[in-house]
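Quick note —
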Amino acid sequence: MPSSARADAAARYTITELAQEFEVTPRAIRFYEDMGLLTPGRDGRRRIYAQRDRTRLKLTLRGKRLGLSLQEIKQLVDMYDSPQDTAAQLQAFLEVLASHRRQLERQREDIELTLAEIAQHEARCRELLAGARRR
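Predicted structure written out below.
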């Protein structure tokens, strides 16, 4: 059965299976392990990842796509495992997302200003070229 089709909580995954499923390198998975995001068991020298690790890897990669720092991701992923109140976890996540949204909106404004300046320079260069061709 392919690893992506496993659904039971007792599922076990190798580093190769997770790397293939999530299209990341085994080195990236080991890095996330070093950062405390994943805690695989061992079968001799082999790492064996549980469903919990698979879910944490999925959340980590989702956080990266959102542009969150590894520290923010770890905080959120650790909340996922916490037996605490879900409302507090969701509120913390909303605050992280709001902060990230503000940062992206500032970046978008900077990009739009830069693009407008580029357009002005392009227009001026075209004017100068047109004038030079007429002479």
